[in-house]
Amino acid sequence: MYVIAFTSADQQNSSSFLSNYARHQNICHMIGYEPKCKKDCQGKVIAFHAILSTNLNNVPKGTIIKFGKVEFNDGNGYYPSTGKFTAPVDGIYSFLWTYHIKKGSSVYLCGFVNGKLRAYTGTHLNATPWQNKSAHFVAKLKRGDQFWVETYHHSAAFIHKSFTYLLDTKLMDVKV
């Protein structure tokens, strides 16, 4: 099962992301949803939030974006040196990436799983002074599967560091 959604987004900082994450967990608890797993699953939260650490200019097509400023990395699945997330366990994972570009920029950042293009987002010749774009992708991954965000279609003219990030959370354990 795969779900893909695209939207323009306002900036979301780390504290608001963590607040939203806690609120979602609380809502699940209030409606009676609790993960069904064995004792060994307790405490195995898999989630990360990483931000682009430098502005990027003229990024060639096919470049994996390395989000170098890691806010948190529960489960240690994200590797900032490679820009890749490696699933530590089988499960359904939710990925969200947002990027910020300036007027005249064309940028396509797509989500890949094990080298296969799975989710698209992009802007061609942005007409506004600044613009945020976001994409959301949900995937069933096996342990060892990898996800990353990569430039696609052509080189990316400019990507701003302060408003560009990648985050993930494991929604649930499943056998794949």
Topology:
Elements: E1 3-7, H1 14-30, E2 47-51, E3 56-59, E4 69-74, E5 78-79, E6 84-86, E7 91-102, E8 107-113, E9 116-119, E10 122-123, E11 130-141, E12 146-151, E13 156-172
InterPro entries: C1q_dom, Collagen/C1q_domain, Tumour_necrosis_fac-like_dom
GO cellular component, one term: extracellular region
Subcellular location: Secreted
Molecular structure report:
Helix content is 10%, strand content 48%. With 176 residues, it is mainly β. Strands 1, 2, 3, 4, 7, 11 and 13 form a 7-stranded antiparallel β-sheet that branches. Strands 5, 6, 8, 9, 10 and 12 form a 6-stranded antiparallel β-sheet that branches. The longest helix has 17 residues, at 14-30.
Summarize the structure.
It comes from Magallana gigas (Pacific oyster). By secondary structure, this protein is mainly beta.
Instruction: Give helix % range.
Output: under 10%
Strand content: over 45%
Describe the largest sheet.
7 strands, antiparallel
What's the count of strands?
A: 13
- The low-confidence parts are 1-9, 36-43
Q: Which whole number gives the mean pLDDT?
A: 82
